[in-house]
Amino acid sequence: MKARILPHEFLEQMSGALRVLGHAYRLRIVEHLDLRGPAPGHQLLAELGGAQGALSQHLARLRQAGVIQAERRGKEVWYSLAAPAALTILNCMRKRQGEGK
Amino acid sequence: MKARILPHEFLEQMSGALRVLGHAYRLRIVEHLDLRGPAPGHQLLAELGGAQGALSQHLARLRQAGVIQAERRGKEVWYSLAAPAALTILNCMRKRQGEGK
DNA sequence: TAAATATATCATGATTTGATGATATGTCAA
DNA sequence: TTGACATATCATCAAATCATGATATATTTA
């Protein structure tokens, strides 16, 4: 595959997505959804800790960036991964971590 | 490969690196160094445009994050990619772009 | 040494981000 | 309808980021 220069608009989108992932707590959310599958907000809160309002805002940013999906079920809202690209990045990190880099 | 929960300190490092890549101009720098190989600052400036001071500061951030290397040769400073992880992310984006996602 | 080129740094202000605590909204069950 | 639970939003403030223009440093050449 020959790499061509990425279009400006696309680069803007992607840099936005990377910036959203550039936060330890949000990365932790993505990791959790990947390892344990979809989960409601209160479960994420119980496992990851922190303030409820903060979690909600982080989830909102991930949703706006298209990294996760949200679906209300009764009084819960279930979150799940929506962007394969985010997973690719996460797995890239896992590999580096495994190599001790 | 079984994915284990990433250590906190590592997650902090990685989120920092992602945040550094989360800027269109800096992504453009990384892309340029990948496509055309190492280059001195003034060449990057000529091709990418913008203010010289801004370029210098973006290069500094990329260097601090370990994404690029710098080496002085005479009055020039040559920059080159230093982080395979950054390339993996870039290639991941190229693939998505190619798929029109 | 002086000028020219290449790069780095600094000061400033505007904008964004992040954390916190409080409050509002939505949903279900008693 | 009231209360409990789950989630979202708001207000505020501190800190980080970003763009800009000016200035400083380093290196080579005249």
Task: Provide a descriptive summary of the structure in words.
The structure is a homodimer of 101-residue chains. Helices cover 62% and strands 14% of the residues of chain A. Chain A has 101 residues and is an alpha+beta fold. Chain A has a three-stranded antiparallel beta sheet with strand order 1-3-2. Chain A is globular, with a radius of gyration of 15 Å. Chains A and B meet through helix 1, helix 2 and helix 5 of A and helix 1, helix 2 and helix 5 of B.
Topology:
The structure is a homodimer of 101-residue chains.
Chain A: H1 8-21, H2 24-36, E1 39-40, H3 41-48, H4 52-64, E2 68-73, E3 76-81, H5 84-98
Antiparallel strand pairs in A: 1-3, 2-3
Chain A binds a DNA duplex (30 and 30 nucleotides) through helix 3 and helix 4.
Mean of residue pLDDT values of chain A: 89
Low-pLDDT windows of residues of chain A: none
Derived from helix and strand composition plus strand pairing, the structural class of chain A reads: alpha+beta
Share of β-strand residues of chain A: 5-15%
Spatial separation of the terminal alpha carbons of chain A: 28 Å
State the helical fraction of chain A.
55-70%
CATH topology of chain A: Arc Repressor Mutant, subunit A
Which series of helices and strands of chain A comes N to C? HHEHHEEH
Task: Give the number of domains of chain A.
Answer: 1
What can be said about the biggest beta sheet of chain A? Answer: 3 strands, antiparallel
* CATH homologous superfamily classification of chain A: Winged helix-like DNA-binding domain superfamily/Winged helix DNA-binding domain
CATH class of chain A: Mainly Alpha
Q: Identify the overall geometry of chain A.
A: globular
Q: Count helical runs of chain A.
A: 5
Spatial strand arrangement across the major sheet of chain A: 1-3-2
- Topology, number of strands of chain A: 3
Report the radius of gyration of chain A as a whole number of Å. Answer: 15 Å
Most extensive interface, chain pair and sizes: A-B, 39 and 39 residues
Oligomer: homodimer
What is the annotated CATH architecture of chain A? Orthogonal Bundle
